[in-house]
UniProtKB/TrEMBL annotation, chain A:
Gene3D superfamilies per record: MetI-like
Cross-referenced InterPro entries: BPD_transp_1_N, MetI-like, MetI-like_sf
Intracellular or extracellular location(s): Cell membrane
Protein name (Swiss-Prot/TrEMBL): ABC transporter permease
TrEMBL record, chain B:
NCBIfam families for this protein: oligo_HPY, PRK11308.1
PANTHER family: D,D-DIPEPTIDE TRANSPORT ATP-BINDING PROTEIN DDPF-RELATED, TRANSPORT ATP-BINDING PROTEIN
Pfam families: ABC_tran (PF00005), oligo_HPY (PF08352)
Protein name: Dipeptide ABC transporter ATP-binding protein
Protein's GO biological process: peptide transport; transmembrane transport
GO molecular function: ATP binding; ATP hydrolysis activity
TrEMBL record, chain C:
Cross-referenced InterPro entries: AAA+_ATPase, ABC_Ni/Peptide_Import, ABC_transporter-like_ATP-bd, ABC_transporter-like_CS, Oligopep_ABC_C, P-loop_NTPase
UniProt GO molecular function: ATP binding; ATP hydrolysis activity
Domain ABC transporter: from-to ranges: 4-254
Protein name: ABC transporter ATP-binding protein
PANTHER family hit by this protein: DIPEPTIDE TRANSPORT ATP-BINDING PROTEIN DPPD, OLIGOPEPTIDE TRANSPORT ATP-BINDING PROTEIN APPD
GO biological process, one term: peptide transport
Family the UniProt entry places it in: Belongs to the ABC transporter superfamily.
Bilayer disposition of the protein: Peripheral membrane protein
GO cellular component: plasma membrane
Entry's localization field: Cell membrane
NCBIfam families in alphabetical order: oligo_HPY
CDD domains: ABC_NikE_OppD_transporters
Pfam families found in the cross-reference section: ABC_tran (PF00005), oligo_HPY (PF08352)
Automatic annotation (TrEMBL), chain D:
Keyword Iron-sulfur: no
SUPFAM superfamilies (alphabetical): MetI-like
Name this protein carries in UniProt: ABC transporter permease
Source organism of the structure: Microbispora cellulosiformans
Family label: Belongs to the binding-protein-dependent transport system permease family.
Length: 339, 367, 341, 318, 572
């Protein structure tokens, strides 16, 4: 078990390194293929008003003329060991993990990311709670009443749910429930109140994004749960449970759902991991200052250090979620042996 | 049938065996991680030797997981042996390349256990039975279709079903299709891996009969793998009993069933339920305890010692070699029963064994 | 009245392809302490019957008619809730594949405890003790330790033992074992058969053993019921069935089996064809397309469904051939072949 | 001696009918009204996309044509009375007064084209690598599987946006819509293959254990023969089903990229692009409604059809 | 909303709202000419929101007009624009300085006396050295990339000077002298008659050297104005509270009515509009006016419209016609574009009459001295272009059937996109086929439209562009976009099309001309010359529709910024 975790951790690190190399290569190579030179990249650092000579000096200083591998090495070293940064009056140490400094704001990326994290986390976890409850409950009921009116209605809604683009539902929800309404359900975007500051405001600001996001996922999970339940309810062990004389509720919940929940948990973990890296569309629709919005803004401004940082953090969450899911799997399903 | 008589003790002395297996081993590595590091091995087949003579049927029995299928797959070179030697018709095919093996594959064919998974559900019967021609690049006189239909008829199927899909056939019919496929290339040796165990009793008999008929007609040599001792007894001339990757006893049919020497064979035989209510009270039973140990960690020396009621110190330390104790009868046991000189039939052997060793009485059930 | 009595039980499933008549007019009786063996080919309706007795088809698509009397109570018409309270306590079942029949996520102990506590108002601790006892009784070594194992940590034989322990935990009066040993190796099968025999003696339950292996029924049963195409074709004591079988299908079964206790015959005597579809059951006697003696009924077999008739002393046979002819055929044509050489 | 023809045509009752698996699936699909409706809708949408010029021509509106005279130049909104009507079925866009209906119709082209091609790309890569990994196992499998893991760890959307954003306007010898479409197809298709790859790998792993593969090998068949003749025909069903279900995902993906402004360049109409334009004019509901609905209906249609197809091809239901 | 009060409000005299002025009139454009809701009430919090992110709060590094408007709340530069209605807001007033600058006779040396008693928020007195340091640090464009380079370019810096950080011990007296703590003297390389405009730049807001953290200074700025930072979360927002070290006695320009300000950034722009209309929010700090969605609402509801203003700013949206890209090397082809364009469609694309702007016929916006109304390319009676003239021009150019070229715009800007599409449409009428080329905003000038080599190679004949004057004068407006010498091969330049040596000469002449009127006349001449060359297709002079806050007092438009003046505002 311990060796398994260690091995998985090593693999996670390897995977993140690969992701970072690819990301780095793409973001530092493709612009060059597109015609950017180290000068034009540096120009982004020193602004439009700088003289050509200043640009040259900056390019040299930022190491844009070094081979890619050297640049990557520097970047990686920054993450592991931190980096030194000349902020003008002096040199400052940017402690590990140092994801470099934004082209635009000149501020280290890492604290920025830490700053955005609570927003995305609030969004993701809040929505997750809603969708798990709503999705799984609907799925179970649908499966038990297979073919009933409820089942068909629920599955119809669920199918519609997974077919609606979230940026569409998002805007519509904003128009209907928020923009210029006397009784707006939520402050549409831009506003995030940390939960420790004011839980009521926190929820108020997030309720609409939660519901929109949760609707999409709940729809998917309802379908998943239903399929899973239909399958487990056909398992032999359900027949055994009934043969023991258990009542139907226990059979469904303790035996059926327990069996169906494992794959759902897996997917849940991965979905959550993916979301924690930034709910790009939701956040940009609702202007929530989370990781996803950060990513979009960074991309819009071609702020490469930010893009790198946010990509890596997002990848980290996916990898981490994978790891947790695998470990959890062993807890949930005793048949899984880790070793 | 003619050949069967020859297989009785005393027959065949000089003829070279069609297939000879010597010290064959297959250890499946248990690997881990990206680099496929080996952390252990399943010793599925662990040094077995036997010969198969032309025209005879060799039965291979044993409990689940003892390596029967692996043996069959080794002989047909579907998997690569870890050690040992396979000689077919005088040719060493142990490590022969797949390319050089191709022509030989016409001679050695395999019948599979599961009539549902052994036929590709996306191919028609014609395509399935015709596949050997296509794969081996054989042109037949009147075209493949004709040839296939002839074979279908041979195994008792309607040739008009050429264009049907496997799912339209019953289990027994599917098994016939599988047999038809193996016959397409006019093989000499057929390895049948549990050819009937997935079938209902009534169908089982049809297939058994078919196999026997074909053997007579086409001059085939069989290695029949099965766990059902009755079926094996019915079709085999000689029988090998396997336990955890080893052959513990090999003898002609009569010798094995009437005077088994290995305790395991004895136990197996006595465990078979007899469809005769009167006999159930008369029989002496040997009840083995527990299950077969894992081939990942087989017990040392004699692999059977953990379940054997006759086991003694030596059994845990020295591996008994497979020795010929009677003509055509080889056993790997330190304390064989029914060996020449030791009197008594099956029942006597058992009680005698228990009494004489006095070991592990838990292993027997006097009831 | 008998302890268990089935009267004209029919269990049909409407499906896309048509109505599946899995059980079609099955009647038999069984007394406490007795063992009934049900044999038949795959798909003959054995499992459907057993599940039907436990009321496990209810709430599904099955159409059930007829009567099932258990200890004076009628079950087909009884409420689902009532039947549920009987399950486990009054009647219990052992399934064929113990690995899939046990929940993979709960320990063996938990599953036995659960079964015990539904019907007995006891604390978890007491139930656990009981579970350990039961595991010990079915011959699991170190039951106090193994009670916390998961099913997958057991070997096949142990699993089946645990399954039996679970079924017996509430001391049921009727125990149905559906192919209890089919998934097991011979040596383990022998252990389980012994165990079941011992347990039945101790518990004095009525036992129904379902199998397609004639050897197994011969080992266990007092009476044997041969099923074909959802119907009983022959019923009698073990002796009747093995010594004086009267139905051609039973003969076929006997003739198909290679047997260790007899000399190996040259050829087996299989039944031709394959089992009938339960949607389009052959007209008349369902067995007639496969029956070697069909011509001897003068077309009757094709036209009419034969009645299940008593020949002598509780021996029932469903065949158009007159009893005398059947006995003659057995004596002269079948039996000698079986014992040939 | 000939074997007794025991098994021939004595199954009792009516002989089993000769139906191929495809026929069975089709029969089941025919009974599934909802799936059929989805299928018809899919066909309809494809026809719309293919015959967009004809359809638009029939209504006499050019998707690029400005109708400034219908726009109130102070609010940029369509003048009152120039909304939905016979002239402009779905009304006109604010600012420039382009006909929404014809833009929706043309939008179907881009949407479906990209979704189909991207799906095709994913399916080809995914199937080939999935089969390879599943069939060969061992190190090959390890490498391919881990590659899939790495791919799945990428925040795809972020990546796609970034990539689509930095690729210049003419590259790889392509320009304009051709470049954008190819680029989007590449990005979407390339990042999606592991999903299908995993499924195919899993299916191959289980197929490989089936004895018919051994049977072919024991006849001397080589790797390619087994992959292409034995395995692939059995993978057609899952590939078909997952492609059908991947298409709507890709429609959404393309719409999201266009919505975020990194899709096909304007003024080529795309649904996502129209929707993103509409956000500024949310007070003009129809502007948002039609592209939103177009995406929704398309995705729904493919999902309905895909679900039905999956049920129809499900071997378990057989 | 109020009933229709009549009579226009009287322009208030100066220094923000006249106390106790008559009842404000809630009518359209009332705040353009008068103070709406005048009041002297202190207290309350004003809530601002920004649809985007602030470029920087650092006085040495900010280049947005709204930021300069806002920065006056926490920073005091040498001079400032008066917090006053309309044209008066264009006037400079001393802030940190005691008076406007004293030029030497040759206008190459400018001297300012600094007020005594001005303190930083920590109580340290502000001296001339702090101002000097602030200007020196702003020199470093590596640390402050967003800022302007006026001081870099015009002061007589020592050779190879690299700014306060990299040239720490270099004596910079050649550029800036501080003879005593309260005198600062700027030495210029060339005469500059309007250096006072430089002196109002935020770069002259003093920065204490020992508190300067370079790139990170924006996280904690040491205030000199009436407010200081309480909390500052870059990218999300910040709050300002009263600075108790601010002495009103030193500051006649600021009333400092509210107790503080709450500013959130990166807020959804539509939401900002709705919240302002609903009264939840006071100001869209960027001053860009309402979004399209709210525009319709405001204009169609008389009550709402009465609560709105429609100022023009000194911004011109235009399309550069790149003479380097054939066939635009031929002036007639450029003229064809001028004639063919549908200016109404263009105006609509930019947002219409109210939120887009006034149709521009030349470069200099009306608010800038030197502006003259003229139209060299009359677009037909309905303003939709003169197709015949355009065709004639095409024929003259040798392309009677039109030609193909590309038009670039910033991908993130929907209005630029719409304008490009409108051009595509209207030019299409005479056979000029445009292909749209969106580029990322961040690299638009540096890599694409502003990079002459790229533009030429990729046939970017037309490029969407915009320019706003840094202050209301011809130099601030025209120099950067008409002088061909600012065109650089790399780095990106604002002028990307005007290449006329004559224009360059005129620019030089204007810079040397110390007489204001004569100077303005030269700028007019430049404007005309560029239009004759047809290197620039003016689109619109920006107008924005601003909605007044329901809670704020003293609302008026300051013409220098083209938006509400943030200094005088109070809370009801
Ligand atoms: N490819 C493989 N990799 C690892 N282990 C294997 C492999 N194939 C077989 N084994 C193991 O080798 C042992 C022998 O397997 P084999 O299939 O030969 O048994 P068998 O005698 O045919 O059993 P059964 O009666 O169940 O078919 C088993 O423990 C099995 O798990
Ligand atoms: N729920 C159901 N719906 C439709 N048909 C069913 C259902 N359950 C069983 N059947 C059908 O009823 C018939 C009898 O099934 P049953 O399981 O009783 O056979 P069996 O005798 O137990 O066979 P086996 O030996 O294979 O277990 C089969 O043809 C089966 O397909
Ligand atoms: Mg096997
Ligand atoms: Mg069954």
């Amino acid at each position: 078990m311990v060796t398994y975790i260690i091995r998985r951790l090593i693999w996670a690190v390897v995977m993140l390194s690969i992701v970072s190399i690819i990301t780095f290569a793409i973001f530092f190579l493709v612009p060059r293929l597109a015609g950017a030179t180290s000068e034009s990249l540096a120009a982004r650092y020193v602004g439009r008003t700088a003289s050509a000579e200043q640009v040259k000096v900056a390019a040299e200083k930022l190491g844009f003329n070094d081979p890619l591998i050297v640049q990557y090495g520097r970047f990686a070293k920054g993450i592991v060991a931190g980096a030194d940064y000349d902020y003008g009056p002096g040199v400052e140490h940017c402690p590990a993990p140092c994801f470099g400094y934004s082209f635009l704001t000149r501020l280290p990326v890492w604290p920025d990311l830490l700053d955005r994290l609570p927003v995305t986390m609030s969004l993701a976890f809040g929505a997750a709670v809603i969708w798990m409850i709503a999705g799984v409950a609907t799925g179970v009921l649908s499966a038990l009443r297979r073919g009933s009116l409820f089942d068909r209605a629920a599955m119809g809604v669920a199918l519609a749910g997974v077919s609606l683009p979230i940026f569409f539902t998002g805007i519509v929800s904003l128009v209907v429930f928020s923009y210029g309404h006397p009784f707006r359900i939520t402050a549409p975007g831009g506003s995030f109140t940390p939960i420790e500051e004011n839980p009521a405001m926190w929820a108020y600001n997030l309720i609409l994004p939660w519901i929109t996001l949760a609707f999409l996922y709940a729809a998917g999970y309802a379908r998943l749960t239903r399929a899973g339940m239909l399958e487990t309810m056909n398992e032999d062990y359900i027949r055994t449970a009934r043969a023991k004389g258990l009542n139907e509720r226990v059979v469904v919940v303790k035996h059926g759902l327990r069996g169906a929940l494992t794959p759902i948990l897996t997917i849940f973990g991965l979905d959550l991991g993916l979301l924690l890296g930034g709910a790009v569309l939701t956040e940009s629709t609702y202007s929530l200052p989370g990781m996803g919005k950060y990513a979009i803004d960074a991309i819009t401004n071609q702020d490469l250090p930010k893009v790198m940082g946010v990509t890596l953090v997002a990848a980290f969450f996916v990898v981490f979620a994978n790891l947790i899911v695998d470990l959890l799997y062993a807890v949930v399903d005793p048949r899984v042996r880790l070793g | 049938m003619a050949q069967r008589d020859q297989a009785e003790p005393g027959g065949f002395v000089n003829e070279e065996p069609l297939l000879s297996v010597q010290g064959l081993e297959k250890h499946f590595p248990v690997t881990k991680g990206l680099l496929q590091r080996q952390v252990g091995a399943v010793r599925a087949v662990d040094g077995i030797s036997f010969d198969v003579r032309k025209g005879e049927t060799l039965g291979l029995v044993g409990e689940s997981g003892c390596g029967k299928t692996t043996t069959g797959r080794l002989i047909t070179r579907l998997i690569e042996p870890s050690a040992g030697k396979i000689v077919y018709a005088g040719q060493d095919i142990t490590h022969m390349s797949q390319g050089r093996l191709r022509p030989l594959r016409r001679d050695v064919q395999m019948i599979f256990q599961d009539p549902y998974s052994s036929l590709n559900p996306r191919h028609t019967v014609g395509a399935i039975v015709g596949a050997p021609f296509r794969i081996q690049g054989i042109k037949t006189g009147q075209g493949t279709k004709k040839a296939v239909q002839e074979i279908l008829e041979l195994v008792g199927l309607n040739p008009e079903h050429y264009n049907r899909y496997p799912h339209e056939f019953s289990g027994g019919q599917r098994q016939r299709i599988g047999i038809a496929r193996t016959l397409a290339l006019k093989p000499k040796l057929i390895i049948a891996d549990e050819p009937v165990s997935a079938l209902d009793v009534s169908i089982q008999a049809q297939v058994v009969n078919l196999l026997e008929d074909l053997q007579g007609e086409l001059d085939l040599t069989y290695v029949v793998i099965a766990h059902d001792l009755s079926v094996v007894r019915h079709i085999s001339d000689r029988v090998a009993v396997m336990y955890l990757g080893k052959i513990v006893e090999i003898a002609d049919r009569k010798g094995l069933y009437e005077s088994p020497m290995h305790p395991y064979t004895n136990a197996l035989l006595s465990a078979v339920p007899i469809p005769d209510p009167k006999r159930r009270k008369e029989r002496e039973r040997i009840r083995l305890q527990g299950d077969v140990p894992s081939p990942l960690n087989p017990p040392p020396a004699c692999r059977f010692h953990t379940r054997c009621w006759k086991a003694q110190e030596i059994c845990t330390q020295v591996e008994p070699p497979l020795e010929t104790l009677a003509p055509g009868h080889q056993v790997a046991c330190h304390f064989p029963e029914n060996a020449p000189g030791l009197a008594g039939g099956l029942a006597g052997g058992v009680s005698g064994g228990a009494a004489s060793t006095g070991a592990v009485p838990a292993g027997t059930d006097p009831a | 009245m008998s302890f268990l009595e089935l009267k004209d039980l029919r269990i049909h499933f409407p499906t896309d392809d048509g109505l599946v008549k899995s059980v079609d007019g099955l009647s038999f009786t069984l007394e406490r302490g007795k063992t009934l063996g049900i044999v038949g080919e795959s798909g003959s309706g054995k499992s459907v019957t057993s599940l039907g007795i436990l009321g496990l088809h209810k709430g599904g698509r099955a159409r059930i008619s007829g009567e099932i009397w258990l200890d004076g109570e009628e079950l087909v018409g009884a409420s689902q809730e009532h039947v549920r309270t009987l399950r486990g306590k009054k009647m219990a079942m052992i399934f064929q594949d113990p690995l899939s029949a046990m929940h993979p996520f709960y320990t063996v102990g938990d599953q036995i405890i659960e079964a015990y506590r539904i019907h007995n108002d006891v604390s978890k601790k007491v139930a656990r003790k009981h579970a350990i006892d039961m595991l010990g009784r079915v011959g699991i070594p170190q039951p106090a330790r193994r009670v916390d194992s998961y099913p997958h940590e057991f070997s096949g034989g142990m699993r089946q033992r645990a399954m039996i322990a679970m079924a017996l935990s509430c001391d049921p009066e009727l125990l149905i074992a559906d192919e209890p040993t089919t998934a097991l190796d011979v040596t383990v099968q022998a252990q389980i058969l012994d165990l079941m025999r011992d347990l039945q003696r101790d518990f004095d339950a009525a036992l129904i053993v379902i199998t397609h292996d004639l050897g197994v029924v011969a080992e266990l049963s007092d009476d044997i019921l041969v099923m074909y195409g959802g119907k009983c074709v022959e019923y009698g004591t073990s002796d009747d069935i093995f010594e004086r079988p009267e139905h051609p299908y039973t003969w076929g079964l006997l003739g198909s089996m290679p047997r260790l206790d007899r000399e190996p015959t040259e050829r087996l005597m299989p039944i031709k064809g394959s089992p009938p579809s339960l949607i389009n059951v052959p007209s008349g006697c369902a067995f007639h397309p496969r029956c070697a003696f069909e011509e001897r009924t003068a077309g009757l077999a094709k036209a009419e469904v034969p009645e299940l008739r008593e020949t002598e002393g509780g021996h029932l046979v469903r065949c158009h051939l007159p009893a005398e002819r059947r006995r003659a055929i057995w004596r002269n044509e079948i039996k000698p072949n079986l014992e040939a050489s | 001696m000939r074997a007794e023809p025991e098994a021939v045509a004595i199954a009792g009752g009516a002989p089993i009918q000769g139906r191929s698996l495809g026929q069975i699936a089709w029969m089941r699909l025919k009974r599934d009204k909802v799936a059929l409706a989805g299928g018809l809708l899919v066909v309809f949408l494809i026809l719309v996309a293919v015959f967009a010029p004809l359809i638009v021509g029939a209504f006499g509106q050019d998707p690029m044509q400005f109708n400034s005279d219908l726009i109130d130049s102070s609010t940029m909104a369509p003048k009152t009375g120039t909304g939905i009507g016979a002239q402009h079925l779905f009304g006109i866009e604010p600012v420039n007064g382009r006909d929404i209906f014809s833009r929706i119709v043309y939008g179907a082209r881009i949407s479906l084209l990209i979704a189909f091609l991207a799906t095709l790309l994913s399916v080809i890569i995914g199937t080939l690598l999935g089969v390879t990994a599943g069939y060969f196992g061992g190190l090959v499998d390890s490498i391919i599987s881990k590659t899939m893991d790495v791919f799945l760890a990428f925040p795809i959307l972020v990546f796609a946006i970034a990539l689509a954003g930095i690729v210049p306007d003419s590259a790889f010898g392509l320009t304009g819509d051709t470049l954008r479409v190819s680029l989007l197809v590449f990005i979407i298709g390339f990042f999606n293959w592991p999903y299908i790859g995993r499924i195919i790998r899993g299916q191959t792993l289980s197929l490989r254990e089936r004895e018919f593969v051994d049977a072919a090998r024991s006849l001397g068949a080589r790797g390619p023969y087994i992959i292409f003749r034995e395995l692939l025909p059995n993978l057609v069903a899952p590939v078909l089903v997952y492609s059908t279900l991947l298409i709507p995902t890709n429609v959404l993906f393309e719409a999201a990229l266009s919505f975020l402004g990194v899709g096909v360049r304007p003024p080529t109409p795309t649904w996502g692009g129209m929707l993103s334009d509409a956000v500024r004019f949310y007070t003009i509901p129809h502007f948002m409604f039609f592209p939103g609905m177009a995406i929704f209906i398309t995705v729904l249609a493919f999902n309905l059809f895909g679900d039905g197809l999956r049920d129809a091809l499900d071997p378990k239901a057989r | 909303a109020c009933g229709g009060g009549s009579g226009s409000s009287t322009p208030s005299s100066s220094g923000g709202a006249a106390a106790g002025g008559s009842d404000s009139k809630s009518e359209f454009n009332a705040a353009m000419t008068g103070v709406v809701n005048p009041s002297d009430k202190k207290g309350g919090i004003l809530k601002f929101a920004n649809g985007g992110d602030w470029d920087s709060l650092d006085p040495g590094d900010t280049y947005y007009g709204y930021s300069w408007n806002f920065i006056r709340l926490y920073g005091r530069s040498l001079l400032m624009f008066k917090s006053a209605v309309g044209k008066e807001g264009n006037q400079l007033a001393p802030d940190l300085a005691e008076d406007l600058g004293k030029p030497s006779d040759d206008a190459k040396t400018w001297t300012y006396k600094i007020k005594k008693g001005v303190k930083f928020e920590d109580g340290t007195p502000v001296t001339a050295k702090d101002v000097k340091y602030a200007v020196e640090r702003s020199f470093d464009k590596e640390v402050f990339p967003d800022g302007y380079t006026y001081f870099n370019d015009f002061l007589a810096w020592p050779k190879d000077y690299k700014g306060a950080y990299k040239s720490k011990d270099v004596n910079t007296d050649s550029a800036i002298e501080t003879p005593d703590d309260y005198t600062i003297v700027f030495h210029l390389k060339q005469p500059l008659s309007n250096f006072d405009y430089f002196a109002q730049l935020p770069a002259t807001i003093p920065v204490p050297k020992d508190k300067d953290t370079g790139a990170k200074y924006k996280e904690h700025i040491i205030a000199t104005g009436p407010y200081k930072f309480e909390k500052n979360e870059i990218g999300k927002g910040f709050t300002l509270v009263r600075n108790d070290q601010w002495d009103p006695a030193t500051d006649p320009n600021r009333k400092a009515l509210p107790d503080g300000y709450e500013v959130s950034t990166n807020v959804n722009a539509d939401d900002i509009d709705n919240r302002i209309i609903a009264g939840d929010l006071d100001i869209d700090v960027a001053g860009i006016g309402v979004q399209s969605a709210a525009l319709g609402r405001v204009l169609s509801d008389p009550a709402m419209k009465a609560n709105a203003d429609n100022p023009t700013s000194t911004r011109l949206w235009y399309t550069s016609i790149n003479g380097n890209v054939p066939p635009f090397d031929n002036i007639d082809c450029r003229k064809a574009v001028q004639y063919a364009v549908d200016k109404v469609a263009l105006q609509t694309a930019w947002g219409g009459e109210f939120s887009g702007g006034q149709i521009a016929t030349s470069m200099l916006p009306p608010a800038i001295p030197g502006h003259e109304d003229f139209n060299l390319y009359p677009p037909g009676a309905d303003n939709k272009g003169d197709i015949n003239k355009a065709k004639e021009a095409l024929t003259a150019c040798g392309q009677p059937n039109g030609f193909e070229t590309n038009i670039s715009y910033r991908a993130e800007r929907p209005k630029e996109k719409a304008a490009a599409e409108a051009l595509q449409q209207s030019l299409g009428r005479v056979g000029i086929k445009l292909t749209l080329k969106p580029f990322p905003q961040a690299d638009y000038f540096a890599l694409y439209a502003g990079k002459p080599g790229y533009a030429k190679d990729n046939k970017i004949g037309l490029a969407m562009n915009g320019w706003q004057s840094d202050w209301p004068d011809g130099f601030g407006f025209l120099q950067q976009i008409t002088d061909s010498r600012v065109i650089r091969e790399t780095g990106g330049s604002s002028n990307i099309s005007v290449r006329d040596p004559e224009v360059d000469k005129l620019v030089d002449k204007a810079m040397l001309e110390t007489d204001t009127d004569a100077r303005n006349a030269i700028w007019t001449q430049i404007d005309k010359k560029v239009m004759e060359d047809a290197f620039v297709l003016p689109n619109v002079w920006t107008k924005t529709l601003l909605v007044r806050s329901k809670n704020a007092t003293n609302i008026f438009v300051n013409e220098a910024y083209g938006m509400y003046d943030y200094l005088g505002m109070g809370v009801k």
